Amino acid sequence: MVEPSSPVEALPRPPRPRRAGVLTRLALVATLLVAGLVLILTIGVTRNDQGGPEKAPPLPVPDQRPQPGVAVPKAALPAPEDRLNASDQAELDAWAQRVARATSVPERVLVGYGKAEMWMRSQQPNCHISWAMLAGIGRVESQHAGFGGAEVGADGRLTKPIIGIPLNGSPGVKAIPDTDGGKLDGDTQWDRAVGPMQFLPATWQRHAARAAGDGGTPDPQNIDDAALTAARYLCSSGGDLSKPDGWWKAVLTYNESVSYGQDVFSGADAYATAIPAP
């Protein structure tokens, strides 16, 4: 992920195809190869890889193409007001259950998005980041942590890691030699984006945060840590994300592609519309 407005050295991020992230494109191609002439109209997984029961169908997401800086997605039902602690976990769970029914986003993933919004309300109250923006990014980057049949456990950790393609300079991909000795991505030659929010290893090391607040090591394959780190990164990049200039500056820092920002906008707006703020 590139950081053109960051005070630290900018990191290149591989260009993404129009209208979908790299992982999403691979998932759609694989589906078409298996199913033949089936047209996939929405992003999401309806049946797990083991042939288990069908999951809820994905929420239809109208495609929107607003120009940068012109508009922000609709305001969404906010996560609970207080910073997460033992006394309000039940409230967060109830909120996630309600939102999941309306959006078809998995409840445990929504807990991660909502928890990140709650933390940032305390840490950077002027940022005004919404869980819906994080959900818009998570939809594009990893199908809400479901890419490749992954699921999120009760502790927030993915049942299997999500690791992107090697950034080896092949056509359409920037060359980024290994920066972490393969610690996060398992590749000692090239970097790969990791986790449900798809961080480059070096970017993760600079911005990572532990959502549990227990002093543990942040884990990019944990939806809570990944969502909170993404929220911190977005807030540091955009300022006030309730304003068009701030929202677009943040999302285009996350990925320097207008079509990517429009995809995120479409998802965030659809989720907010499905369960609007009171």
Question: Can you offer a commentary on this structure?
Answer:
Helix 2 packs across helix 3 (about 105-125), helix 3 (about 105-125) packs across helix 4 and helix 4 (about 130-140) packs across helix 8. With about 280 residues, the chain is mainly α. The two termini are about 35 Å apart. The protein contains 8 helices and no strands. About 45% of the residues are buried. The longest helix is centred in the middle third of the chain and has 17 residues, at about 105-125. It is globular and about 50 Å long. The chain has helices spanning about 20-35, 90-105, 105-125, 130-140, 200-205, 225-240, 245-255, 260-275.
Percentage of residues assigned to helices: 25-40%
Distance between the termini: 34 Å
How does the overall form come out from the CA principal axes?
A: globular
Count the E strands.
0
Strand content: under 5%
Name some characteristics of this structure:
39% helix; 278 residues; single chain; mainly alpha; 8 helices
Task: Please summarize what this structure is.
With 278 residues, the chain is mostly helical. Helix content is 39%, strand content 0%.
Tell me the layout of helices and strands.
Layout lengths: L21 H14 L53 H15 L3 H17 L7 H12 L58 H7 L15 H16 L5 H11 L3 H17 L4
